[in-house]
Structure formats: structure tokens, C-alpha cells
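lol so apparently i was supposed to do this last week
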Amino acid sequence: MIDIHCHILPGLDDGARDMEEALEMCRVAQADGIQTIVATPHCRNEIYRNHEKTIWPVFEQMQEAVSRAEIPINLLPGADLHIHPEIISFLKQNPRLLLGGRYFLLELPAHSIPIYIRDFIFQALLAGFVPIITHPERNTVILRHWKIIQDWVKAGALVQVTAMSLTGAFGSRIKESAFHLVRMGLVHLIASDAHSSKRRPPILSRAREILEGLLGPSQAQAMVKTIPEKILRGEPVDTTNPTGVPPPKQSFLKRLFLRHFNN
Ligand SMILES: [Fe+2]
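anyway here it is w/ fe (ii) ion bound
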């Protein structure tokens, strides 16, 4: 499996505290069946202002440490970018933080949706960059108005749900929201968004099992391997039909309930 969202680089954000914990996270990931981790420290929010020059030396140190410790994990560089109007110029100045030369993780605020998000997605795509919207299932506005994601996906954005949301570790409401987005065909991949080796570990297998139950084994595999592989190779992903499975038909009563619930 491939984990494209992981706060594993030590000392750069609220992820791994030190190299020891970062290596322990690698061991946990490897034991879970993860072969590749993209190291994505927080960037462009008010607290963490990372960029290539702060990330690169730590990334190289960590690659060395992983190979010295003989942990069979492939580590790649990336970034977790909080939404900000200047992201496009940031990406042009920090191209080594792109995934596959064109994709980037886009983090929304926890309790709001910026009014400029649609324009931002179009501008990013026009500039040749594809946003991967991270954990929308945890945004309190999207919990009530999930349909707004459809427009972003139709425009060409990808959606990543966090593994621990599917397992229920963030509560039943977020779990329900994650399930709903998956069932609606609005999720392209999952990632750990790990911050530590124990409390928020880099584990994908439990969420993959849940996806197998929701979508079947090949679609679950697509969300942890095939689609992340395409992203890392810079290949296009069909955003409108992420797993190749149409959303399940719902009963009239369920549709009525959902319409009422989401208005
Ligand atoms: Fe993150």
C-alpha cells in the first residue's frame, strides 16, 4: 500500500517528535503492509510555514536514517498545504513538494469553506496543478452539506478520506460522513494522515477492510495502491468515477431522508 499523507518528518510540525518516533512510525507502517510513505509536513498555515528549504534537509536525513535502520520503506517528499490564495505561486517556487510533478494535498479549515475555493480549484488546474482535498469528511460544514464536493470533483479535484475516519476513531458522525462520501463515489483514495506511532499511527489495513465491505476488494485496492501509484507517476485519475463503481441505488425513503438531512 501507499500512504500519500503522513506527518512523519521530525520536528517540522505537530507530527513525529524526533527521529526515533519517525522511525517507529516507519516500522508500524511497514508491519501494516505499507511500502511507500509520502512525507507531508504542514505548510502555509499560521503556525507552520514550511517550504522546500525547511523540508528538504530533514527529508534527506530521514531517508538516511531509514536506510541505516534497514526499514524497507520508500520515503518520498511532499507537503500538506492549508488552503491559501497564494498556494499556486508557492507550488511554482517549491516544485519538489509536488506529488508526481502535478498533485498537491489541499487542507481545508476545520469549520468553514473559503468562499473562493471553486475559483481556487479552477486556477490551480489551469496552472497544471491538481488538488487532492484532504479529509473533507472532518469538515463541520461538509458534514451537513456534502454535495458541494460534487462540484469540486466534477471540476477535476481529487478527494482523500482519512483511514481513522472510516474506522470510527474520530467519532460516529465523521465515520458516517466518510462512509457516505465513499458510497456516493466522491472518494478517490485513503491515507493515514498519521501524526505519531501510537495515537495517530500510519495504518491503512483496517480502513481497507472496511472499503472492501463497502466497494469490494479491487476498488478498495485502487484506493490504497492503484490510484496513489498513478498520482506518484503524475498520471491522470478519472475524478468522476474514482473506483469504477457506480454509487449504489438508494430507496425512495433513504433519498427523502438524505435530502432532508442535507438541506
Ligand atoms: Fe495532514
